[in-house]
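Input record (one chain):
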Amino acid sequence: MTDDVRNIVLGVIAAGLSAALGWLARTYIWRRKLRRKQAFFGLPGNSECLLVVNRDAGGDGAVHRHDVFALLELSALIKDCSAHAQILAHDVAQQGFGERTEFCVGGPVSNRRMAAHLHSLLPGVKINTDAEPGPDRNAFQIGSERYRVEKGVAEYVILARLTAGQEARPVFLFCGQQAITNQAASRYLARNYERLARKHGNNTFCLLLKVVNSQAYGPDVVELVGDVTRAAQAPAPAPTPRTSHRASG
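The corresponding structure, as predicted from the sequence alone:
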């Protein structure tokens, strides 16, 4: 074998080894990233999860189009984790939580299961569900702070990851003042789950987001108002008892 042929063969072998090592490194990084994503969402490969959807209050049982878009955002995340989703309406999802990851979409008026989750897991969150129009309709009360709706200008949504224990699968809540905010929260989660996983790990958190100028920007411009986990999980304050005053005579 001449020197030229030997150099060519060695070059081919070196290129092959370099390509193989590069492929192995990329595969390792991709798998590690996938495992972290699966752990954060509680979705190991071939697992099942629930997508619990609300009903549009004025749509004769139909699902609002923005909530459909939210489901599509979440479905893409689930597919990326190599998991499978079962879609259930809020009024037929009569089962506990923790065995399967759950994504629950919609406010407590249109989603009974959301109302149950808020009552059980986030007792410090109160939502005005009055049917009559008024400045406090759909307003959030979290601790001592109140967040009112300015439709199309400033609307709020709760994005929460809740667990009932270390081994339990998480429940993700997307509870907004308007349907478009549910979509905004699902998109925010899809774009920022890596940062959220680094900050919170696989622990419980509850974030309050503000959707800015949705009438112009749709669900794309979202601001993080703050982490309200502590206030949202604090027991609701007991009502102040009335004092009875009797006239003396």
